[in-house]
Amino acid sequence: MTLSHAPVHKPQAQSDWWKGAVIYQVYPRSFQDTTGDGYGDLAGVTKRLPYIASLGVDAIWLSPFFTS
Asked: N or C: lower Cβ tally within 10 Å for the chain?
C-alpha cells in the first residue's frame, strides 16, 4: 500500500505584495461602453484588460457600479 499526501499550501514568501504593486482603479460605468447605451460596463473592462496589463499594472481595483 502506498500513501500519498496532498500538497501543503505554503503562503507566498511576500504576502504583502500589494505594498509595492501598481494598482489601477477602474470605474466601470465611465470606462468603456460595449452596448451603446452610453455607460461603461464590465465587458468594456474585460475587453481592455490586455491594454491595462501593458501599462505594467499588477492588479485592478473595481469601483462599485451599484449604488451602495
From this structure: N
Q: Long-range contacts made by residues 26-33, C-beta under 8 angstroms, separation at least 24? A: 26/52, 26/60, 26/61, 26/62, 26/63, 27/63, 27/65, 28/62, 28/63, 28/65, 29/65
Q: Determine the structural domain holding residue 36 and report its residue range.
A: 21-62
12 lies in some domain:
no
3-class SS of residue 54: helix
Global confidence as pTM? 0.67
pLDDT digits (tens, 9 = 90+) for 52-61: 999 999 999 9
Residue 1 lies inside a defined structural domain of this protein? no
